[in-house]
Structures are given as structure tokens and as C-alpha cells.
Amino acid sequence: MTQDTAPLSLNVPEPGCRPGDTPDFSDFEIPRAGAVGRPPVDVDPDEIRDMAFSIVRVLNKEGKAVGEWAGALSVEELRLGLRHMLLLRTFDARMQNAQRQGKTSFYMQHLGEEAVSCAFARALEPGDMNFPTYRQAGLLFAVDYPMLTMMNQIYSNAKDPLAGRQLPIMYSSKEHGFFSISGNLGTQFVQSVGWAMASAISGDTKIATGWIGDGSTAESDFHAAMVFASTYKAPVVLNIVNNQWAISTFQGIARGGVGTFAARGHGFGIASIRVDGNDYLAVHAVARWAAERARKGFGPTLIEHVTYRAGGHSTSDDPSAYRAKSEAAAWPLGDPIERLKNHLITIGEWSEERQSQAEAEILDTVITLQKEAESVGTLAGGEAPSPRDMFEGVYETMPPHLVRQRQEAGF
Amino acid sequence: MAQMTMIEAIREAHDVAMGTDKRVVVYGEDVGFFGGVFRCTAGLQEKYGKSRCFDAPINESGIVGTAIGMAAYGLKPVIEIQFADYVYPAFDQIASEAARLRHRSNGDFTCPLVIRMPTGGGIFGGQTHSQSPEALFTHVSGLKVVLPSNPRDAKGLLLASIADPDPVIFLEPKRLYNGPFDGHHDKPIVSWKNHALGDVPDGDEIVPLGKAHTFREGSDVTVLAYGTMVYVAEAAAEETGVDAEIIDLRTLLPLDLEAITESVKKTGRCVIVHEATRTSGFGAELMSLVQESCFYHLEAPMIRVTGWDTPYPHAQEWEYFPGPGRVGEALRKVMED
Ligand SMILES: Cc1ncc(C[n+]2csc(CCOP(=O)(O)OP(=O)(O)O)c2C)c(N)n1
């Protein structure tokens, strides 16, 4: 050791803002809406390297849709998008409250991130398969999965489609292109690649999508998924939802101080794009581009959805302990529902009045369904799934040792 | 009927399955062009094409994770982990995902998948080419665990595993790939050729999962064994003259408890042999089950002969390995009581 070698020290990244501080997003570079162009779907990933550092945006401050990514959706589809996001937000609020009332053990809401899954789902075809995390229920809302069934699961009542075996928000519906959610973070990312590979092996036309949170990109499975996706050019769209926080851990811990999450695709030669996750039109347009790219055999796309988790991580989380209370309000990409609403108003296809009407009608629908679900039962009481169900379905045919255990348990 | 080694039998099972079911795909490290480091998949890529048999990146978690996605899609992946010692990076995908998918989705998604891996010692592989991790898998609800001891069973059990609707861990005792092995490492290697169990039926005949095989009939003591240890137990019985009944378990999960209890009730004594480390090993499970169901028939305390609770050593392999000497000692001891 030479004498002038100073002792080393560990770099532990810290967010710019903690409780008590004033949030400051002035360092956060946001390109103007329309500034990022739309490349052809067969583009060489190398030619769009800058798209991993920029952000695709369609809606500008005035609520206008601008640039090459605009114009993909009809007014009817935009109104439907607004409706899906409102349904999800209302549903979340009611279920969050139901948890506080002891009707379920646990809930996770999407507050601020509704556009990501609601808009993405509308870019897929029936038969495509999503491998989601727990914060993409919009994928179900946007394809009309019955809300009542979701409630029955959240309440773990006798009509829970998963027979009380899964956590409340870990849905599963093959029919709706929604792979069974795992509580182990990141695992589904590589499974989505496998599903896509299977589609290619079978000469099918369907594609898969994988979903992961910013924090969970640190998991080995994220990297495994990238290796397999790039090696076999799997028809898959790989989504990172960067909502800035992984429980109390800010995104810089998984990412380090350099690059972006999207830029991780570069080392794999995967087309990588950042998109404004609070812009329904931008998410939809980018999703459609990536889906088309996959479907036409041009390989995987990595999308980083830049958004903000405005609510707590889950009902067990108190974000005020680790981040400034006003941070959500200061988030520069705004609120996805407000932005789509303003856009529709700007183009003369919606009004504040119609918005209030829609909100009231949606709240009514959700409350009616909630009553119906609660009349069956909640975790606190009513009709529950049979304990016998716990022994069923571990295997297709129950092996003798499980039959013995079921008898021992008295079911 | 053809005479073949266990490697050839495994290859033939793949061939039969791929030939009859288009959904069967085979991949793993070095599995495609080269046919696997033990050559269990040799020739399959040439015959079935690169999209049904291919090389995978060296990423065990990725191999299993993608296979789960493929199984969920509707294919039947048969994947190879190059050595059982390297399955740990994939353990989460196996234990948390493959094993639970059917249950957690209430049958909405299933995971018919076979994970093959060479297991066990006896080839001077040191601590990273010799392990026997079967107990880690038998502890996981939702998996099936299979471990053949001869070419005939290897083919039939692999075909049954591929046909099975649930995820199967298929452990291949690599010391038996080319011939039976009685634990005498200083004797010349014998081949499966001219061995009765090297006779492998043609076609797609399966050996059902969950059924043990009475490898040797006897009346003094029941030896519960699987894989390489079946032959070690046979050598021990012959060397000691103890008339041991050797039950080759073949499938550890689900286990053929009926065959076990029937034999122990007949002999009144039980010795359990496995290569894996002792503490919390599969032998502990076997002892509990025999105790629960045969206690009043037992004439002596049961004995376990196992590998020691150390990493598998390189130079001391034959001191670690439960050879015929140690098994014979157990047979004598259990007969004295
Ligand atoms: C393998 C694993 N490790 C840890 C956890 C506990 N856990 C649940 S959610 C979470 C944070 C995830 O953050 P992120 O990926 O950013 O997704 P977000 O919740 O922000 O949508 C953690 C650490 C887990 N579920 N699985």
C-alpha cells in the first residue's frame, strides 16, 4: 500500500428528499411531449439507444396529444380508458377501506399508476399472456374480468376462485391472459420469456409480457429473463414499472446512480424505451409498438414505465416514515386520470359534469358489487372456502400421503 | 428388448417422448449440439430440430423459469441441470413456482415439467459434482421426486415423468450411468450389458411413479435404498450372509409406503441406506414412517447408513461413501438385537 492511499468508503445511494424536506424534482429531465419520435417496429435496437434515456410522451401541458406517437386511439377508446382507470381507482379505495374494517387481511393499491396497466392491456390481443406483479390489476379491469370475482378473492369467501389459497390481490386468470401472481418478486419475468419461447417453438402468433418493479430489477431473475429473451429473440415485451419506490427503498438502490433501468437492455441488444407512465396515450402507443415488434418476429422490447407510487406500498406500509408527504403532489408527471380527463375535455369530448356523473355511477357499481361479495362472506365471517380445498390441487391426483393427512385433519 | 446403458435408456426415453408428443422440448447447458456432458440427449437435436432440442445459457434459474412459462403455455419441457450440485440457483423457481403453480391458481395454470439432473458421488467429483439433494425436493409440496437405479427403470420412469401432469424432479445416479456399482471402487467397472436390468423394453412402456421395486427378496431384514445404494446393499447382504430384502424405492415422492410396511412387517427389521448427508436426510423421513406404521413389528432399533454431515470430500470419497463395509456392519448389528 502506498502511503497516500486513503481508506475506502462504501457508497450507499440516498434519495434527494426525506420526511421534512421539500421535494425537488428539478433534476429530473422531462422531454416535451412529442419530442421523441416513433421509429419503425423493425428498427435495430442500436439505432434507438437514446430512447432508453429519454421519455416518450404524448399529452402536453395543455392536454393536447402531440407528436408521432399520438393518434392511435379513437375518442371511444379514450373514454373507455378513462373509465377503466376510474374503476380501478374506485375499487382500490373501497378495498383499501375494507381492509381497514377488517374484512380482508391485506390490500395493495395502484394510486397514481393506473395508466400503466390499463393502457397496456388495450394493446394486446386475446390469447396473449401477461406475467404481472401485484400492481397491474388494470390488466384485468381493461379486459372486463369480473370485479365481483376479484372481491370474492380479496374477501377469501366461498366464491373465491382460488379457494382461499392465495393472498387477496394475487389473482389468476388464464382466460383473461393474466398469469397467476407470485409473492416471490421477479420470478414471473423469466417465466414470461419461457411462455414467449414456447409460442415461437409452437409456431403460434401469441406474445407474452413480463412485469417487474424497479426495486425487483435487482433480482437475478430479471437478468436471467434478459439473457434468455435476447438469446432466443423471444416474442416478449418486458416491462419495468419504475414507481420510484420499493417499499421504503428508493429506486437508486436497485439502479445505482448511473443510467436508467431501460438502459440495462443495451447490454443485451434489446430495444429499450422509457415511457411516461402517467400518460395513458403514451403507454398505449409504446405498448402497441412493442407488441407489434414482438408479433412480427423482431424480438423483445424492454419498456421502463416512469411513474410514481402515490399511495402506500400496501396496507401494511406507512410511507410518511420514509418520504416527504408532499412528494406525490410534486411529482412532475401529474396524475394519469386527471391528464386523460383534461385531454378529453380539451378536444371537446368530455366535461367536468360528465366526469362527476361517471364517478358517481362507478362508485355506485362498485358499492353494489361490494355488497354482493360481502353477502357471501369476508375474511371476518360468512361463507368461507372449505378447509378440504387446501389439500386439493397440490397435484392433479391426490397422492396417498395427502389423502391420509386430509383424513387426519378431519376433512 | 434391447441391452443398453442407463445413458442410452434415458436418451431413448427422450426419443420416444419427442417422437410421440410434439409438445416435448428438451434443453439445458450443452444439451443440444453436443448432446449433454453425459451424452443423455445426443442425437436429439439432429433428429427433432433446433427448436425442440437446444443449448441454454448457463443460468439454472433461467432454465427452470423459462420451462415453467413453457409448461404454462402447454408444452412439456424436459430440462437438464448439468449436475444436481448446480440446482441451487434454480431452487426458488422450483420450490416457489413450479411446485405451487397448480395449487395457487386452483388449476388455472399447471406445470408439467421434468427437471433431470445427475446426482450422487463415486466419480471423484469433489463437493460440487457429487451431491444428493433429494431431501430438499421431497420437502416441497407439489413436486414428485424420482430416482432410478437401472436402465430399465430409467427409461420407464422417465417416460412416466414426462407424461405426468405435475413437475417431476428426476435424479440420475451418475455412478450408475455405465454400469451397476457395488461400492467397491477398486474393482473393475462392470457394464449394464449382460445385466438383467440392462434389458430395456422397446416402445413407450412406462414404469409407474410411486411404486417401489423389490430388488432382492429376503427374510431377515428390510433394506430401504435407492439409486447406487441398491447395489451397495446387495453386496453387503452377500458379503455378510444376512438374508436382506432390498426395496428399491424408485420414487421418493409419492412414496410406496405399502411396499415398505409390508416388507418391514415381514422381516421385523429395517436398515435405511442413502448417500446424502444424514441430518434431516430422507432416511429420517423413512424412519419416522416405519416407526409410525410398523412399531409393534420391529424386533430391533432401525439403523441409518448415510453420507456424513460434511461437504462431499474429494480425496476421502471412499470414507464418505456408505460402502458395503458400513452397510454390512449395520446388517450384522440389526441382526444381533
Ligand atoms: C423475493 C422477494 N423478496 C422480498 C419480498 C418482499 N417485498 C415485497 S414487495 C417489495 C418491494 C418491491 O418493490 P418494486 O419491485 O419496486 O415494486 P413496487 O412495490 O414498487 O410496485 C419487497 C421487498 C418479496 N415479496 N419477494
Mean pLDDT of chain A: 97
Instruction: Report Rg of chain B.
Output: 19 Å
Distance between the termini of chain A: 70 Å
What is the overall silhouette of chain A? globular
Present as ligands are: thiamine diphosphate
Total of DSSP H or I helical runs spanning 4+ residues of chain A: 12
Order of helix and strand elements from N to C terminus of chain A: HHEHHHEHEEEHEHEHHHEEH
Shape of chain B: globular
Q: Could you characterize the architecture of this molecule?
A:
The complex is a heterodimer of chains A (411) and B (337). Chain A has 411 residues and is α/β, with parallel strands linked by helices. The mean pLDDT of chain A is 97. Chain A has twelve helices and nine strands. Chain A starts with 74 loop residues before the first helix and ends with a helix. In chain A, strand 2 (208-213), helix 6 and strand 3 form a beta-alpha-beta unit. In chain A, helix 1 (75-100) packs across helix 2 (114-121), helix 1 (75-100) crosses helix 11 and helix 4 (147-154) crosses helix 11 (352-376). Chain A has helices at 75-100, 114-121, 138-141, 147-154, 187-201, 220-232, 251-255, 280-295, 327-330, 336-346, 352-376, 400-409, and strands at 129-131, 208-213, 236-242, 245-246, 249-250, 271-276, 301-306, 377-378, 381-382. Chain B has helices at 6-20, 44-48, 60-73, 91-98, 101-104, 134-138, 151-163, 229-240, 257-267, 282-294, 317-320, 324-336; strands at residues 2-3, 24-28, 53-55, 76-80, 114-119, 144-146, 168-173, 199-200, 213-216, 221-225, 244-248, 251-253, 270-277, 303-307. In chain B, helix 1 runs parallel beside helix 7 (151-163), helix 8 crosses helix 12 (324-336) and helix 9 (257-267) crosses helix 10. Chain B has a seven-stranded mixed sheet with strand order 3-2-4-5-7-6-12, sandwiched between helices. The radius of gyration of chain B is 19 Å and the shape is globular. Chain B contains twelve helices and 14 strands. Chain B is α/β, with parallel strands linked by helices. Chain A binds chain B through residues 129, 131, 161-163, 165-166, 170, 172-174, 179-180, 182-184, 187, 189-202, 208, 220-221, 224-225, 227-228, 231, 393-396, 399-401, and chain B through 25, 51-52, 56-57, 59, 61-62, 65-70, 72-75, 77, 89, 92-93, 96-97, 101-110, 141-142, 144, 165-166, 210, 253-255, 257. The complex binds thiamine diphosphate. The site of thiamine diphosphate has 15 residues of chain A, from strand 4.
